[in-house]
């Protein structure tokens, strides 16, 4: 490809990666996971979510995790919030950024957040205004943007309608998420261009799952379309507990291999990231990580 630009990686393993895993980890293991990611070069980390512990037991210790994580200069911690109570918790815990999710379909929104899309957008306006007033960076994720497990296809116009409505309250970043891993590259290119047109000047991030083995092709299509920030999860762990068959995120280490071999910079060390992915999978009782790089290694061997 010959490109030499940089691509920023938002490491989502500690939140989106762990939330769907049945093996509950203790706080110290989660903090060590985050510390290893930082030492591998991660600088934006989705560390926790502030949701009801009965809904997502893996995130029950969000405050304890945030109290114990290292705080080196240049590292930004993101907390997922779904309501004003979660935002208040995030403020108190000392996150650097908050992320809010609007799901693109009514059925999934009701199942995941116990409210419809319009109510979710109303909550976004309240949360975004409060975060900006507090000087906290706030991003909006439009989830299930390529397809819904309950309603099927999601038209691009639906995503654009949500983005335009949401931006009545400014966002620092818009993320478009293929929550169940159904998108393909031509959809990615189309939606990236149309969201960029609908939200001029607002940085665009994209979030892919590899459920149908299209995640890495989609990530590369996004970068080729001008997207400069991608989500990924070390080890390839994760999914959505409220979406049937929503298997793992694209693996950070596998994404790094693709980007680095394509001439792009990320600031992350591939071998250290792969070792971290293998390490967390061992803690989760996985005999074989979803990620490939921990097994295959870099090429040429020992390459940086």
Structure characterization notes:
The protein has 304 residues and is an alpha/beta fold. It is built from 12 helices and 10 strands. The chain has helices at residues 13-17, 27-39, 62-68, 84-93, 106-113, 117-133, 156-166, 185-198, 215-224, 252-261, 270-283, 293-296; strands at 8-11, 44-50, 76-81, 97-103, 137-143, 147-148, 152-153, 173-178, 204-208, 229-232. It has an 8-stranded parallel β-barrel, surrounded by 7 helices. A two-stranded antiparallel sheet has the order 6-7. α8 (185-198) links the parallel β8 (173-178) and β9 (204-208). α2 packs across α3 (62-68), α2 (27-39) runs antiparallel to α11 (270-283) and α8 (185-198) crosses α9. The radius of gyration is 18 Å and the shape is globular.
In short:
The protein is of the alpha/beta class.
Mean pLDDT over the full residue set? 94
Q: Strand order across the biggest sheet?
A: 1-2-3-4-5-8-9-10
Rg of Cα set:
18 Å
User: Gap between N and C termini, in Å?
Assistant: 18 Å
- The proportion of residues in beta strands is 15-25%
- How many E-type strands? 10
Which series of helices and strands comes N to C? EHHEHEHEHHEEEHEHEHEHHH
* Percent range of helical residues: 40-55%
Derived from helix and strand composition plus strand pairing, the structural class reads alpha/beta
How many helices? The count is: 12
**Uncertain stretches of 5 or more adjacent residues:** none
């Amino acid at each position: 490809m010959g490109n030499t630009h940089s691509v920023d990686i938002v490491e989502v393993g500690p939140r989106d990666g762990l939330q769907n895993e049945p093996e509950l980890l203790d706080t110290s293991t989660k903090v060590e996971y985050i510390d290893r990611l930082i030492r591998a070069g991660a600088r934006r980390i989705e560390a926790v979510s502030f949701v009801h512990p009965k809904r997502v037991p893996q995130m029950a210790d969000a405050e304890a995790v945030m109290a114990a994580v290292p705080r080196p200069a240049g590292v930004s911690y993101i907390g997922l919030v779904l309501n004003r109570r979660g935002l208040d918790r995030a403020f108190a815990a000392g996150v650097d950024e908050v992320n809010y999710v609007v799901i693109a379909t009514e059925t999934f929104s009701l199942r995941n957040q116990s409210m419809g899309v319009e109510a979710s957008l109303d909550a976004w306006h309240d949360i975004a205004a409060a975060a900006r007033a507090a000087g906290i960076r706030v991003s909006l994720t439009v989830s299930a943007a390529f397809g819904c497990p309950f309603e099927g296809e999601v038209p691009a116009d639906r995503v654009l309608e949500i983005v335009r409505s949401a931006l009545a309250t400014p966002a620092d970043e818009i993320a478009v998420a293929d929550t169940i891993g159904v998108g393909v590259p031509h959809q990615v290119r189309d939606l990236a261009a149309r969201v960029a047109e609908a939200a001029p000047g607002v940085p665009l991030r994209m979030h892919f799952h590899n459920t149908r083995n299209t995640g890495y092709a989609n990530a590369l299509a996004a970068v080729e379309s001008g997207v400069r920030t991608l989500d990924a999860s070390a080890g390839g762990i994760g999914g959505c507990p409220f979406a049937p068959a929503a298997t793992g995120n694209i693996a950070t280490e596998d994404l790094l291999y693709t980007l680095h071999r394509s001439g792009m910079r990320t600031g992350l060390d591939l071998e250290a990231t792969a070792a971290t992915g293998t390490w967390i999978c061992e803690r989760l009782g996985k005999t074989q990580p979803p990620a490939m790089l921990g097994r295959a290694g870099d090429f040429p061997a020992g390459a940086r």
